[in-house]
Write a structure and sequence with these properties.
This protein has helices at residues 6-19, 25-36, 38-41, 81-90, 105-112, 123-126, 129-160, 164-181, and strands at 44-46, 55-60, 69-73, 76-78, 96-101. The protein has 183 residues and is of the alpha/beta class. It has 2 domains: 6-120, hypothetical protein tt1805 (3-Layer(aba) Sandwich); 129-181. This is UPF0302 protein SAMN04488525_101370.
Length: 183
């Protein structure tokens, strides 16, 4: 996915702090600490599925069903933010992974350009076959809708130009598409 700059990370975290309330105040303290310590922030990676990493934290916002704070280290799970903070400061040269649990997190993180690939999961594990099929069907429907929109424009142009041949050609194709796809 992305390889965000330090500035992009800072902009996103600042925006996030202003727009969301975290379930635990310690999570907010950690985010503010990261904003003020660029040397640490450069090794922070905003990802999905943080529980698969060897060093990572998950913060949930108020209203999200996920646990308020989770710290993952070498296959173990902890709920103590101070332990995570201590590890973060002590091992400041190492990569550290962060997942924020809030509505539409994927879209927002992508929009800000800060969502990174999780190196602990392979891309094939991310998408299951059902999801892949849903995406494929959605793309097909979108392509059909785009073609229908294009044909309607061409029909309008043919009508304006009194071009009966083009009108019949585009109308026929439109009718076939609509019957085939029952739109």
């Amino acid at each position: 996915m992305m390889n965000p700059t330090l500035e992009e990370k800072k902009n996103f975290i600042s925006w996030f702090i202003q727009n969301y309330q975290l379930k635990r105040r310690e999570s907010l303290w950690i985010l503010n600490y990261l904003l003020n310590h660029e040397i640490l922030l450069k090794n922070i990676h905003l990802i999905e599925e943080v529980h698969t990493t060897n060093r990572g934290m998950g913060f949930a916002v108020v209203g999200n069903p996920k646990d308020a704070f989770m710290y993952y280290k070498d296959g173990k799970t902890f709920e103590d933010p101070e332990q995570a903070f201590h590890d973060l400061r002590l091992n400041w040269k190492e990569d550290f992974y962060l997942e924020l649990f809030f509505d539409q997190s994927y879209q927002v993180l992508s929009f800000f350009g800060v969502l990174e690939d999780n190196p602990y999961i392979q891309e094939s594990e991310i998408f299951d076959k059902d999801l892949e099929e849903i995406v494929e069907k959605s793309l097909e429907k979108l392509a059909v809708k785009d073609r229908i929109h294009y044909l309607k424009k061409q029909i309008d142009i043919a009508l304006i130009q009194y071009d009966e041949t083009s009108f019949r050609k585009f109308t026929k194709e439109l009718k076939e598409l609509e019957e085939k796809n029952m739109i």
